[in-house]
Design brief:
The chain is an all-alpha fold. It has 7 helices and no strands. It has one domain.
Length: 121
């Protein structure tokens, strides 16, 4: 249900919130988020939706990335993620760790700069 609400609010063609709302809430444009989502899904199977042992769908890639971003951007505690996204503390922490690892892996060459002399000193 939280995935359906997330999609309805932000990602469906007639979403509740506008592009400006999305940018204000997530600190990035929707197309940047979608690129990030695609990159983390391709780079780490953790961010693909799976089924649990009972056959029910697990958390969606959108939910996992949103939780990780909210924890990083806003410093949101894990217990607030349970209330808003239905994700337990241990899953939130796993998600954040997986997210940070894959971001470094995927983007390090593109965004890492070589140290200058001041850095070396």
């Amino acid at each position: 249900m939280s995935h359906a609400n997330l999609m309805s609010n932000y990602f469906n063609p007639n979403s509740v919130y506008t592009e400006e709302d999305f940018r204000r809430r997530f600190r990035m444009r929707r197309r940047v988020f979608e690129r990030l989502l695609c990159d983390v899904q391709q780079g780490n199977p953790y961010f693909r939706q799976k089924r649990d042992r009972a056959g029910h769908p697990g958390f969606s890639p959108h939910q996992k990335v949103i939780v990780a971003l909210r924890m990083m951007v806003y410093g949101s505690p894990t217990d607030s993620m349970k209330e808003t996204h239905g994700m337990f503390e241990s899953t939130c922490l796993d998600t954040l760790e997986q997210f940070c690892d894959i971001i470094v892996h995927v983007y390090k060459d593109e965004y890492r700069s070589k140290p200058n002399q001041e850095d070396l000193n």
